[in-house]
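Re-run with default settings, no changes from the original entry. Doing this only to confirm the output is reproducible before filing.
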Amino acid sequence: MKRNKLIPAALSLMLVLALAACGGTPATTPAPATPTPGAEATPAPTAAPTATPSAEGDGSLQRVLDAGVLTVGAEGNWIPYVYNKDGTGDLTGFEVEIAREVASRLGVEVQFQIADSWDPVLAGLDASRYDAVICGVNPDPDRQEKYAVSIPYAENPFCLVVNGDNTEITSFDDLEGKLCINSPSSSAGKIAKSYGATTADGDLTAAMEQLNTGRADGHVNNVAAVDEYMTSRPEVNVKVAAIYEPPAGQEYEIQSAVMLRKGDQELCNKISEILQEMIDDGTCYDLTVQFFGQSVADSVSIYQ
């Protein structure tokens, strides 16, 4: 099929806006995370160990130090954020390496529980299946109210994808009454709904297939993830119709932060301290260069 290709300069401009957030609010009914085929075999306890709060804090940091492991939940099959290296089965990606570095600086190992869709991820955190979610989650006010939230460690723009032959949808304002393939509880789904779209659950691959066959009108996702998909699947007839620009004061919509349970503020504070060190010493910048390129890294405002 014919594919309308992005003008390279335009896509470059999209990508230099920043990095990634996969994210969604927790599902109302906690569901166990489904392991991604080929993901690292890292069995995690059915519930994170509990600790008695000490006089100096809530005990969450000491719980992880005593366990010797930081358990992390994330959504897989999300290149270049959380995915398995071709031919190796080794888990990697920007979010994976952020998590590994945080755990290393805590002085503990890291174990991942990878789900194949977004909705179970925060639900797993609610159910204490792991200590933290590190998966490009944006720190919107609702999440900050419910969870302990770290400082932002990355930035990531969203884009609107449509069928390559679609001339009707050219901006987010054109989504009124349209069908977008996005998890209704995700950040991308919330953006689509804010413009009047109806949402139906589906990951990036499923969304692109439905756009290609005309069964859906749009899909909102991270620019880098969309670019990776379009580069690897040039036969799929889709195109980027618009880049999302958050309103003033809502920059959190393109930021990524670590999410923990509300009662684990001490652990959250320590992770924020480590993330700030990683920003200050250039680690986050270097990982951004590795997975997204220098032009993207140079454009991230929190690295300036």
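The radius of gyration is 19 Å. The longest strand covers residues 69-75.
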